[in-house]
Amino acid sequence: MNEQENSLFNASRTGDLELLKELIEQKTGLNIRDQKGYTPLIIAAYNGQLEATRMLLYAGADVNAQDAGGNTALMGVCFKGYPEIAELLIENGADLNLQHGNGGTALMFATMFGRNALVKILIKHGADKYVRESRGLTAMDLAVQQGNVEGLELLTT
After folding, report:
1. Are residues 47 and 76 in the same domain?
2. Fewer C-beta within 10 Å: the chain N or C terminus?
């Protein structure tokens, strides 16, 4: 990875909007990947950088890019718990039912980690509650397994 690409990842991670804007204007590849398959968008979203995420999306970053494990930016924010970034990703075409390498979805991440505000958002936008991961479990099964009573209620109403 060259210096410009490293700078793009760092600006995405830290939310350095001035540098990010400059790199976008220099036509730095927005969908480049690091050794783990992360894109600048995945990094910005995962680190809670709302404005950097917005800037990357508006510049054309692939909202459904998957890392080496098949995880997307939406899955990352559902793991970390960033509802506002999730809404932004969904508004920009994030696939709610995309599955990672083990078959998990963003809804499953939100359910497993008790991110019930995100469970609400995903259901509101039409996430499929019945998708099964590699062990055959649905988001509802995972809510039971994790003792997420509120999440289970959201999934069954």
Report:
1. no
2. C
Token couple for 150: 């509120």
Residue from 69, 124, 120, 74 nearest 97 by CA: 74
7: left (phi over 0), alpha (psi -120 to 50) or beta: alpha
For residues 83 and 50, membership in a common domain is answered with no
For the entire predicted model, the pTM comes to 0.95
Last residue of a domain, one of 62, 82, 115: 62
Q: pLDDT digit of tens for each residue in the chain (157 aa)?
A: 789 999 999 999 999 999 999 999 998 889 999 999 999 999 999 999 999 999 999 999 999 999 999 999 999 999 999 999 999 999 999 999 999 999 999 999 999 999 999 999 999 999 999 999 999 999 999 999 999 999 999 999 8
- H-type alpha helices, the chain: 3-14, 17-25, 40-46, 50-58, 73-80, 83-91, 106-112, 116-124, 139-146, 149-156
Please tell me whether residue 37 adopts helix, strand or coil conformation: coil
The domain total for the chain is: 2
